[in-house]
Amino acid sequence: MPQVESQTVEELPVEELKASLLSLDRLAVRRTMLAAAASSTPVTVIDSLVVPVLERIGQGWQAGEISLAEVYMAGRLVEETVDEVLGAPAASARASAAHPKIAMCVLEDSHGLGKRIVSTCLRVAGFEVLDLGLRRTVEDIVEEVRAKGIEILLVSTLMLRAALAVGTLTRRLAEEDLDHVKVVVGGAPFRYDPNLWREVGAHAWGYSASEAIEVVSAMARA
Ligand code: B12
């Protein structure tokens, strides 16, 4: 059974957070997330509380029980508190000559919460991550990678169409002699289909923010 200091993952207040988000109770959302973070680790709160709650809300929307406006507001309320839960990145989280140059973007779509959380967690873990933003096209990214000398590119995609565009991205990087760049992917389509990352030519994928840290740490050591 996964154990997170004094609280097990099963004890995290999933229903409480979901109810607070759906009733737009900003103070209760903040209180619940910060209380959970105080008795477990910030990354666990994200991976085992916040992401599953947003997923449940998304399923409620698919089932026609929750409106898109409620999904939107839930995302916004989480965004308001997420940096506080994760804490400020350590002063040591600066560019280190020993670290490869890392960047993160959202390809094509506008679901920005995963990028924000993963890049903050990487910064907390001591990596500097250049933010290439949301709704980027394949050609934008190829240009940024070349201009900025990126060595590890993290791509977050939440829509299937965008996940498939990673295939075009890896092909274009190879055509431009940038195939030494390691492409790491994550987001809902890769969670639904565990073979998709290989099919689109990525070097690795991560299920969660903690897996993103593991993958990047292994690449930085290699
Ligand atoms: C919240 C949400 C929204 C919010 C976005 C708020 C925001 N600021 O981001 C709003 C309401 C705006 C929205 C809009 C839409 N959405 Co929406 N949305 C969601 C929902 C419910 C949760 C996404 C989320 O924020 N999760 C929380 C974050 C933290 O989780 P995450 O992004 O998955 O990130 C975690 C991991 O995946 C991983 N990770 C993420 N990226 C990366 C990258 C790397 C490199 C690594 C290693 C790891 C990693 O680490 C993170 C932390 O653990 C999902 C459902 C789902 N299952 O994901 C649908 C979902 C993504 N949306 C969907 C759709 C269809 C839409 C809309 C088209 C709806 C519409 N009709 O307008 C629009 C499109 C907007 C656009 N053009 O981008 C679909 C996509 C389906 C598909 N096949 O493409 C989903 C899957 C819902 C569904 N099941 O139908 N959405």
Structure commentary:
The protein is α/β, with parallel strands linked by helices and 222 residues long. It folds into 2 domains: 3-86, Methyltransferase, Methionine Synthase (B12-binding Domains), Chain A, domain 1, CATH 1.10.1240; 102-221, Rossmann fold, CATH 3.40.50. The chain is 55% helix and 11% strand. The chain contains 10 helices and 7 strands. The strands form 2 sheets. It has a 5-stranded parallel β-sheet with strand order 4-3-5-6-7, with helices on both faces. Helix 7 links the parallel strand 5 (152-156) and strand 6. The longest helix has 21 residues, at 42-62. The protein is globular. The model is unreliable at 1-7 (pLDDT under 50). Bound molecules: cobalamin. Cobalamin (B12) is lined by residues 46-47, 51, 54-55, 57-58, 62, 68, 71-72, 75, 109-114, 117-118, 154-156, 158-160, 184-188, 191, 206, 208-209, 211-212, 215.
